[in-house]
């Protein structure tokens, strides 16, 4: 009986691990692909001096609260600053290159390449590229259902 219970636990653990790995694969792909593209100084739409948004792709979402996910790269020239803005949607942000200081209403923190953070709809956020290189935020914008 004990052996049967262990087989069930091991089988369940293996299934849970497989599901978790499958769910995380797109996230790892997103982070890895963010490092590839180098943008010119005029690509995308300027939202602040030295800060441009480049639309990357859009896809459907299987998360019930969201109908789709839009991926965009926010490209910051060295020292560029995106002023405080209210977020229109929930977002997951990955620092694809550079180093940044992020300021929210209740906290300020520093991030480097490979770090992630989130932005909540209705909350404020501002960012400054503190590195001497072009910095890129890869943003997954979650579009509500």
From TrEMBL:
InterPro entries: RmlC-like_jellyroll, RmlC_Cupin_sf. It comes from the Bacteria. This is Cupin 2 conserved barrel domain-containing protein.
């Amino acid at each position: 009986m004990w052996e049967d219970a262990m087989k069930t636990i091991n089988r369940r653990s293996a299934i849970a691990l497989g599901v978790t790995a499958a769910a995380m694969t797109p996230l790892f792909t997103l982070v890895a692909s963010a490092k590839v593209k180098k943008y010119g100084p005029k690509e995308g739409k300027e939202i602040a001096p030295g800060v441009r948004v480049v639309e990357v792709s859009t896809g459907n979402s299987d998360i019930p609260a969201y109908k789709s996910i839009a991926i965009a790269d926010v490209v910051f020239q060295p020292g560029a600053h995106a002023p405080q803005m209210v977020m229109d949607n929930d977002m997951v942000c990955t620092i694809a290159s550079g180093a940044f200081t992020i300021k929210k209403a209740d906290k300020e923190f520093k991030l480097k390449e490979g770090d992630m953070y989130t932005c909540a709809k209705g909350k404020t956020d501002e960012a400054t590229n503190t590195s001497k290189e072009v910095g890129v935020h890869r943003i997954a914008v979650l579009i509500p259902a």
